[in-house]
Amino acid sequence: MDKEPNSFYVNHIESGEWLQYTISSKEDGRYDLFLNLSSDNASGKIALTVNAKEIKDEVVVPDTNGQWQNIAAESIKLKKGSNVIRIKALNGGFNFKSIDLKKS
Q: String of b and e for 65-102 (b: at least 16 CB within 10 Å)?
């Protein structure tokens, strides 16, 4: 993990690595999931699971010229209460900063 001024991020993600987040939702609903990533190439690929169910088998990480960019990943369904989101690198070579959810 590296640190930029006022933020942390995971750099040089390798194939097979994963990150898992447990979040709480106030209500059942659909949310658009965005990933804040940076990459110097377009070889990165990610698989997404929510509550142990695969929701996207391949999100391509674009070449962002090393700049942080929010990538629209998928619209996901969350249940009221605790939810687990797992982000797995199928092909590494990118940096990961955060996730963002917006009510659909």
A: eeeebebebeebebeeeebebbbbbebbbbbbbebebe
Which residues have C-beta within 8 Å of that of residue 24, sequence separation ≥ 6?
A: 81, 82, 83
> Taking the model in full, what pTM does it have?
0.89
Tokens in use for 9? 């991020």
Geometric angle at alpha carbon 78, from 59 and 1, rounded to 5°: 50
Q: Report residue 9: phi and psi, to 5°.
A: -155, 160
Delimit the domains of the chain by residue range. Answer: 2-103
CATH number for region 2-103: 2.60.120.260
Q: What's the pLDDT tens digit per position in 59-68?
A: 999 999 999 9
